[in-house]
Amino acid sequence: MKPLVLANSPVPDFRRDGFADLALSLRFFRFIWGPQPSQDELAHHLGPRTSSHDGIGAKHWSDWGSYWKASENRDYRNLSLAEFCQHYETVELWFEACPADQLTLIWLLDYFKSHPELVSRLKLRLLDREMMIPDGISDWRPPIVEVTERELATASTAWQAYRSPTPEACVDLLQRDLSALPLLKPVLLDLLAELPSASSGLGATEMRMLEMIGRGYSLSKDLFHSSDVRQTRVFNEEEYAGPLEGLAHCPEPAVMGLDDELCTIRKENLRDRFRAFKRSRLSLTDFGKAVLAHKEDFSRHNPIDRWWGGTHLTNDNLWRWKPVLVKP
Predict the structure, then answer these.
(1) What letter would DSSP give residue 51?
(2) % of the chain surpassing 90 pLDDT
(3) At 240, is the pLDDT very low, low, confident or very high (cuts 50, 70, 90)?
């Protein structure tokens, strides 16, 4: 039987190339921004379908499948993910180097660690989307490796560390052998760089925004979409709005020119929010210039209330990075 493919990013057309029976793009949870989902929420999402999964949005793992009608196992989509995987000889995990992909990967491997009967079916492909063959995946096969207890143990340790109430466990991971998942250590470093800086009080993405605005990138689309210039890779294009609004709509703004209507437009109203971002013309305030020069600390003038993994960052619980961890 053709394999089942599990991924995080939108997957290529595996069906068209005759490669897989089914591909699941498991993107319900974003572990980057906001509080972490509870263990019950995670288990519910991957468990058997019940009436509580019905309604608007993809609430059950099976809602992320494509071409269900063509799948040989379409009659089993209401099972838990683990039970569904038992209907395949091979389950391939296709994951990229970006933090969102790697966090989803360690979550899934931690889940499969509790289902040892599936381990022999699991295969891992670490991929670079830029190397994909434009005409399909028939000639693009990233290296495949067996998933063993070593990969499962590394993933489980990393997953528990990321969800801990302080970043200390993740910092400790940097001193351990993470070679079973070779993309994990660079991702941890990228994530740790998003902790508030010891000198500026801002993370890497926020500081990069100030740098770009200071160099004349006055349009929000430049900050959101110019990835080659931006160079940071933790947040996706939709999530960049949060850090930008935090820099502009606060007691002591570092950025001016962001449309004030964004303070009142509902988050779900994407059309009006897009228009507000589009008409904004951004520049740095004097305070923003001082923060960029590391002469002012953003957090000393503004409230901090955000999440880094399982750590709730506030002014009273402000873990910093410089690049060693600094306790509150």
Answers:
(1) G
(2) 71
(3) confident
Which alpha helices (H) appear in the chain, and where do they start and end?
Answer: 39-46, 81-85, 99-113, 149-162, 168-173, 184-192, 204-214, 220-225, 227-230, 241-248, 270-279, 286-292
Q: What per-residue string of b and e applies to 61-100 under the rule 16 or more CB within 10 Å gives b?
A: bbbbbeeeeebebeeebebbbeebbebbebbbbbbbbbbb
Contact 6, 96 (CB under 8 A): no
Question: What's the predicted TM-score (pTM) here?
Answer: 0.92
Q: What pLDDT, on the 0 to 100 scale, is given for residue 215? A: 95
User: 3-state class of 308 per DSSP?
Assistant: strand
Q: Is-contact 228 306, C-beta < 8 A? A: no
* Angstrom distance (rounded) from CA 80 to CA 217: 47
Is the distance from CB of 209 to CB of 245 less than 8 angstroms? no
Output the six-digit token pair for 303: 């409230």
Q: What is the pLDDT of residues 210-226, one digit of tens each?
A: 999 999 999 988 888 77
Taking the C-alpha atoms of residue 49 and residue 157, their distance in angstroms, rounded to an integer, is 28
Question: Residue 160's closest CA among 179, 176, 182, 147?
Answer: 176
Task: Return all residues near 86 (Cβ < 8 A) that are at least 6 apart.
Answer: 117, 118
| pLDDT category of residue 107 using cuts at 50, 70 and 90 | very high
Q: Of 159, 155, 139, 137, which Cα lies nearest the Cα of 147?
A: 155
At residue 84, does pLDDT exceed 70?
yes
Structure tokens at 123: 């295969």
Of the chain, the end-to-end C-alpha distance in Å amounts to 54
Q: Which of 242, 172, 160, 162 is nearest to 203 (CA)?
A: 242
Sign, CA torsion 210/35/300/252: positive
